[in-house]
Write the structure tokens for this entry.
Amino acid sequence: LPAEIVTATALFSDGELAPAERIVRDYLLRHGNHVEAMRLLARIGLELDVPDDAEILLAAVLELAPDYHAARHDYARALLQRRKHVQAIEELEKLLKVDPRNRVYRTTYATAHVGIGEHERALALYRELLADAPQAADLHLSVAHSLKTLGRPEEAIESYRAAAAVRPSFGDAYWSL
């Protein structure tokens, strides 16, 4: 990677979004399309809650590099932030064909199903993930939310309590209870 992009990535990782964005934009203006620079700018956009710009950038990245899986996952996330759940599911299915056991892809896929109201499907997906990682408090919370939405409060309470038991400082679990 070019030094500017390495520096911008480090700034991004440290939460210094404005300087990272300046560096990446300047680099792209001087050098044109560079898939990693474009992806980094899109990731900054997602963090700054500008998913429409991120979606456009990531679509362009995928035109240039259709097998760039990390960019495709970021694209799916941008689509989810824009409430384009069906399109996100399509992108995630492409990723899952390549790497069906990838926990991040599977979790995002389940979340996308929540977005289209397929709570039973999402619940099944979350439970599959939870079977492999019973100490994942976030998954217990997602299961609980799905159960609550499906009108199964007793089971939801059990899952909220499981999330709190796994991570005692997990405020979202206590708040949901």
